[in-house]
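User: Structure with zinc ion, tokens only please.
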Amino acid sequence: MDFLSLPGMSEYIETTRLLYRHGWAEGSGGNISMVLDGVPEDAPVKAVFPLSPDTPAPEGLSLVITRSGSYMKSIAADPEADLCVLRIRGGGAELLWGLKKGGRPSSELSSHLLGHEARLAADPKHRVLMHTHATHLTAMTAVHPLDERSFTRTLWQQCSECMIFFPDGAGVLPWMPCGTDMIGRATAEKLREFRMVIWAQHGVFGAGSSPFEALGLIEIADKAAELYLLTAQLCVINSIPDEGLRRLAEVYGVTPREGWLDI
Ligand SMILES: [Zn+2]
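Assistant:
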């Protein structure tokens, strides 16, 4: 079985490279997982990683995820060392491919499983969850109120693409320690209603039907955050009014989150 030829795998690997080039994956920061279609039922199992009994792992789900401690900058050079394909079965994660030099799946595996469960319930086309340290979105959490309606409205007002690509808005979580069940569960709860969740003083989680879609969502939001930061200390005399945001939504056939526009 050639796991690298599965649908979405080449795009997934290209995305790891792009995250590093964006400057959003310093050190071993960030992780990506993608639900896989087409993994054979009889693929041999190389190892099993137990899952916490609290993790409501979707039985039979196959996914690819980064290795714990892997560097985005080097995944593309040797994917079989830095990625793993897992199948969830019987309360454990069966290793079907990857980790050829040893290691474990990302420590955020439980958060990703919870997140996939939440997104798949909302959208059957969902496949990808991506955590990255998007610079401008993270900087914005230092200087902007964190209530998600206000935070999203500021992003929407910066440039036209935001309303078109995330009319559902962005969830925002206050700072909390990463790598904990608490942040994993809080993120999964937000993912039930948002495709993007911003972690204050840390980064962002984005979801999509493909790696490029999830990446594109974060890129657009981060560009808007950059525009905000470039102008926040200036005398801003123009931004997109609610009337304009409503018009954009009509033109592109999207529905703004209920109650988040004032008109
Ligand atoms: Zn992180």
